[in-house]
Amino acid sequence: MRLGVNSVLFGGHDLQSAVKQIEFCGYEGIELASIAGMAEHLSDTASDQAIQDIRSMVDQAGLELYCVEAATNILEADNRERTKRVFERAAKLGIPMVTTGSAGESDNEEKMEASLKAVEELSQAAHDVGIQFALKIHYGQSIYNTETALRLMKEVQHPALGLNFDATHVGRVGDDPVQAIGELKDYIIHSHIRDTKIEQLQIAAPEFQTAGRGTVPLEAVVHKMVEINYQGATVLEIIGANDYSLEQVTAIAAESRGYLKRLFEEAKAKAVI
């Protein structure tokens, strides 16, 4: 189990506070948020000194750097250039991958074609700096379910490209998340995890994204990830908490870790029986 937290949960607080609390909660790693307008703990313009400071901060906490989330509309050229700058800074930090969604619109072939081209361009840019591009299957975008994810991996066969799997996205569009893991297992290189009211299209408030408080079949999802021998990191990604106090977001992280740690331990124990 390699369990971490996306710093977007701490979007209303500075990175030093996030790192301190993530370490305190017992996580092994962190995913840096580089999401303009939401949480920008890693800037696309970060200087070499700023990068060195982040590296030192994380190392002193004994955490791994798993990924950078740079969610944006990659169909816009300026945003793709920003993403490439994030790639460069991730590489300098020794972070193995960056994740974004595909942008576009579900069931819109014109937008799908544009998304495929954008993903191919970014996959090559990631490859050029020595990292991977983890494309997040995302509700409402061109790559939003199992079928479109398989199409992506068939049509954009790039060695730097893989999938970021989040059960809350595929589940809300009607796919069985457990079945989806089985069908996509050869391509999943990163994983986001959280809870929500999965029967609703809108992601629930942060307290209901806390692992164990929603209706996502997290136990079955974790067991399936262990079954397929998933070796990547699993990162708690909870959005919408920018107005929450540091105590509140720390409580969300701590409660989620306890719940998820138990699920992974039970799944591993079952796998060896």
TrEMBL record:
Residues forming the Xylose isomerase-like TIM barrel domain are 24-262
- Which Gene Ontology molecular-function terms are recorded? isomerase activity
Identification of the protein by name = Sugar phosphate isomerase/epimerase
Q: Sorted alphabetically, which keywords does the UniProt record give?
A: Isomerase
Which InterPro entries does the record cross-reference, listed alphabetically? Answer: IolE/XylAMocC-like, Xyl_isomerase-like_sf, Xyl_isomerase-like_TIM-brl
Q: What Gene3D superfamilies does the record point to?
A: Divalent-metal-dependent TIM barrel enzymes
Under Pfam families, the record lists:
AP_endonuc_2
